[in-house]
Amino acid sequence: MSEEIDWDSLTFSLTPTDTMYIAETGMDEAWTPGDLMPYGDMKISPAAGVLNYGQGLFEGMKAFRTSKDRVVFFRPDENARRMQRGADRLKMPPVPESIFIDAVEQCVQQNLRWLPPCGRGAMYVRPLLMGSGPILGVAPAPSYRFLVYVTPVGPYFKGGVSAIDLLISEEHHRAAPGGSGGVKAIGNYAPGMMPSKNAKSKGYAEVIYLDAETHTCIEEVGAANFFCAKDGVLYTPELTGTILPGITRDSLIQLARHNGIEVKETRVTAEFAMGADEAFCCGTAAVISPIGSITKSDVKASYGDGKPGELTTKLYNQLVGIQNETEDDVFGWLHEVPL
Ligand code: PLP
Ligand code: COI
Q: What's the pTM value of the predicted model, to 2 decimals?
């Protein structure tokens, strides 16, 4: 029962909620709005394209209860569009933005009792698009399922917003040029589990991936984008096709520039980042997580005595302030969920 939820001990983990949403369509058919149904297990063919060949995408977005007692999404149109780009790449029929937005809104409305109070967490909304029809040869599935479920969440990394220690992965890569790293393909994530678990067993919060071509430039932190700051300038890896175009990343670039901070989207070598003044990673789940240290082989670079840097703190406060409506939504990023 949600009445028993201790909102302050929420972590980034699954709490089953009441209602989910499912829509289905054929390969060359138009999507029509789906149905709400009780949250729970679903039937799927053993020969489904998603189970056999990984023809699947996910999105991650959050709904917030704000200080004005409104319920809002943060830039949901960007999630809808990113899923459409992913659908093109994985040869799936893209879900129209109107159906996507209607589905995520309905899921929030139906599960309102699971939405944490303002400032004490968020409702994580997980849209999935998958090849659900049976297919034996390696080819697009004959039918598709678009599904949305929700769950209340707290901080992504253990220890809340305290600075995290990261390890540069020298053996494994997340994505290669021409591959699927630039979209939220489900298949991008399982290969990261072993490196991530290994790093966690050594006390690190996550791994940092370098580019697969030169092994010198930082691409991403597990499932979050990377930023560092040096001499008041903010640096983030440029989008080369192997990096996921994070919506938080884009928002922080806009916010920083709005504040008069210079932002460079460029190649960021591990060497440069390890000499930076501050560093953080960001994403819907991770929000902004300050980085306390980066280790590469036996060299460890530490930032700010484990305390978040000045720029990191400023951007965190602005981003979270907009999401909570304690700061003006100057860019019109909030999308109100009608209640
Ligand atoms: N990079 C990867 C690989 C991710 O899975 C995510 C999470 O969505 C991000 C970055 C951050 O993207 P966003 O800010 O849109 O959540
Ligand atoms: C997100 O930030 O929404 C993500 O998708 C990260 C992770 C939970 C996969």
A: 0.97
**Among 62, 91, 184, 230, which one carries the catalytic annotation?**
184
pLDDT tens, position by position, 133-191: 999 999 999 999 999 999 999 888 766 668 999 999 999 999 999 999 999 999 999 99
Share of the chain above pLDDT 70, in %: 98
How many other CB atoms sit within 10 Å of the CB of residue 297?
A: 8
Ligand 2: which of 252, 284, 287, 319 to mutate, most ligand atoms within 8 Å of CB? 284
The pLDDT value given to residue 160 = 62
What's the CA-to-centroid distance between 4 and ligand 1, angstroms? Answer: 31
Could you tell me the domains of the chain? 2-153 (3.30.470.10), 164-324 (3.20.10.10)
Q: Is the pLDDT of residue 4 over 90?
A: no
The residue whose CB lies within 8 Å of the most ligand 1 atoms, and thus the one to mutate among 12, 61, 284, is 284
- Which residue puts its alpha carbon closest to atom 3 of ligand 1? 223
